Amino acid sequence: MTANDQADAPPPVRPVFDAVTWREIAYLLSNLPAALIGFVYTIVMVSAAGGLSVTAIGLPLLACVLWGARQLGRFARARARGLLGVRVAEPTPLPGPKRSGGFFTWLWTGIKDPVGWRTVLYELVRLPWGVLTFTVTLTGLIVLWPVLPYVVRGLSNVDRAMVRGLLSPSDELERRIAELETGRGVVVDTAAADLRRIERDLHDGAQARLVALAMGLGLAKEKMAEDPQAAARMVDEAHGEVKVALQELRDLARGIHPAVLTDRGLDAALSSVASRCLVPVKVAVDLPGRPAAAIEGIAYFVVSELLQNVSKHAGARGASVEVWRAGVRLLVRVSDDGRGGARVSGGTGMAGLAERLRAVDGVFVVDSPEGGGTVVSAELPWRDRDRG
Length: 388
Prior knowledge:
Largest sheet: 5 strands, mixed
Mean pLDDT: 79
Helix content: 55-70%
Strand content: 5-15%
Number of helices: 13
Strand order of the largest sheet: 1-2-3-5-4
Shape: elongated
Radius of gyration: 30 Å
Distance between the termini: 33 Å
Order of helices and strands: HHHHHHHHHHHEHEEHEE
Low-confidence stretches: 1-7
């Protein structure tokens, strides 16, 4: 059982009226009105679409009815998530007529939508179940008070099973598509933020320095005839500014994608990053070859960001970086002997790293007890470099 499965498992039965029990009671009492709405919509609209199926509007109406059923499923998932703690991924949205390749393709996709049909089934079976749970729970509040927590837990566990069984994405592929849709948005946002940072660094750094350099050279040119010594001093100053501007551009290029990573791989690139850390860092890279450039770049930037955190926040005396391959995964571990207490949501950039890794089917784990140092483990999918 995975950590997510354990977190999503039904809570244990306790003979007390705790917060979980009261939320379950609220869910069971709201079953009846919610089931009535869903049942009436399903019966009326599916019957109307079936009756009109011999006309031109019957099939488009059925596709719209199934789309509406999807919205009922979205509401049911939200209700179960809020009151029962059931976390079910949202199915992938259906594309519109323009994105799906035309009206008839959209129509056929909508009619055979498995998510919509399973939601229709869910709403049909919900009415008798809603009547039962409402009646039992309401009666239990009056006459079954001592055993009500047990009854409520059993009924709500059936609801949990129904939501997971009928309202979850269709299969593993559907779930992965839903996760990747979310991950794609994260990647786009991260790329946009990186572009804004590069633009800001160019504007505030190298660009401003080059503008000042051009103005200084212009003044030196004007003074060349009347005061050659002053002009020479201004040219010397401009020469120094050129060196600073070049260094800033090199640093910016290194932040985008360092040349050493492209030319020599992770071992050399991570050793270069470690040499700039404010604490001693041991680097151990044991790879049989080089992964795909995108995976290699993500691993590099993860280690670079983590070592910056070590320099700025850890208060450590030393750190280590380990990179190795295990099967079809690239494993990265960065540890330090600092003060600990690091959190993914702690404002040190770790949340962005976690999102970036999830977007490529990676894993990001932080182990950082107070006063016990920090160990950050990351996993990335291994793809051979020749395949990209």
